[in-house]
Amino acid sequence: MGNPRDPSATPQDDVENMSKFIINGGNKLNGAWRVQGMKNAATPILAATLLTRERCTIHNIPRISDLNHMLAILKDLGAEVSWLSEHTLQIQTKKIIKNEMDYLLTKRMRSSVLCLGPLLAATGYVRMPEPGGCNIGNRPLNTHIFALQALGAEVECEAQYYNISGAKLQGKEISLPEKSVTATENLLMAASITPGTTIIKNAAAEPHVACLVRFLRQMGADISGAGTHEIKVKGVSELQGAEFSVIPDQLEVGTIAILAALSGGEITISPVVSKDMAVIAAKLKEAGVDFIEQGESWLVRGSPGGLRPFQIETAPYPGFPTDLQAPFGVLATQAQGESLIRDPLYENRLGYMEELKKMGARAIVVDPHAARVIGPTPLTGQTIHSLDLRAGATLIIAALIAQGQSVIEEAEIIDRGYEAIDARLRALGADIRRVE
Predict the structure, then answer these.
(1) Cα–Cα distance, 394 to 90 (Å, whole number)
(2) CATH class of 7-36+248-435
(3) What is the CATH superfamily name and number for domain 39-245?
């Protein structure tokens, strides 16, 4: 198995300096794409290890900067982490050594908020700064605070900090004001070791929420209703260590399927969990993407000439995921006609449209939540900006199908969610290189 690398040893894993991708477009891409573990499933699972003093072994961890930042936060709180292989780690927090989350580490990414629930339930007090993350719009912690207050927590806000006390939490019925994924996950983790029964109504039902529930149950939690909008949690006195594997990233499946459709080659994508892909698969078929489901694999063939216009509107699961509307935006530039894209969840998610327009796309941002795209339009290489994680991946697709050379600035933003994406794309025949 060799010597497992330390996360800090990989350039794309912990990039603080600015970097960029240089891409020469127009190559047909062919080959096999191995889907990494889902970032949005791995981060809450790592946070949940704070709920036990025993060792946990987690498989299929993607080697990306967001996961490194989460591990840095957990280490700062007292966790001991060791990599057993390329994508498997052991983590154990024998003792939580502090209640205050480090300001700079917390500011690095939005997912740091996932430590709030388990840290509060395990210690009775948390001091946490406002978390950071992608600039995709206003994402206040109101639902998180509402949920924890419903369990009995007391919350004080000062400057950029939250001081949360929860020495006497008690399970109860809680109806969330929105289907917030991270608030649902925080409440699940906190309720797992809170006395009494907690019933979460209007809970998020995304595959990564169900994945977290499976991990918590493996640790000894008593939870039912995962994958629905009502989850029941009977608090237990303590949780044990567990061994678990993170689910494959369905967002990456959808992104690479679009790349395959536009690049004119043939790419086999695996592993794919079909039940998690239903709405995404339906929209790909509506748009004319040529793919065949083969067990846990998708075979996607290039179909740039047969793409049809489509409409998408993002919504909580089982609706269309907001994290895939940007890749569908570049798909729309090559469809025969006018497509409509609506994202009512976030107001800054359509910024990438301006970058696509620099490349020749015909797109009109109707309002902060909607855009019309008219295709097909040839794209040409330009210097463009990543803006956020999903927009960055979208612009990589655009650059790979464009004529000429593109420079994608802020490549380190893309590294937050995609492991070694440049090397993996080169293996398919892409002309892409990184410049620090």
Answers:
(1) 33
(2) alpha beta
(3) Enolpyruvate transferase domain (3.65.10.10)
Question: CA-to-CA distance for 117 and 334, rounded, in angstroms?
Answer: 44
For residue 271, what are the CA distances in angstroms to 2, 130, 297?
24, 36, 6
The pairing of beta strand 88-92 with beta strand 56-59: antiparallel
**Structure confidence by residue, pLDDT tens digits, 79-137:** 999 999 999 999 999 999 999 999 999 888 888 999 999 999 999 999 998 876 434 33
Enter the DSSP assignment of 168: T
Mean pLDDT on 303-323: 93
Q: Where are the domains of the chain?
A: 7-36+248-435, 39-245
pLDDT confidence bin for 420, thresholds 50/70/90:
very high
Residue (of 112, 76, 171) closest to 416 by Cα position: 112
56 carries an active-site annotation: no
pTM confidence score: 0.91
**Average pLDDT value for residue range 171-200:** 97
Count of CB atoms situated within 10 Å of the CB of 367: 9
Phi, psi of 378 (to 5 degrees): -65, 140
**List 56, 134, 157, 211, catalytic entry:** 134
Question: What distance, in Å, lies between the first and last C-alpha atoms of the chain?
Answer: 30
Cβ(192)–Cβ(121) below 8 Å: yes
The answer to whether 7-36+248-435 and 39-245 have equal CATH topology is yes
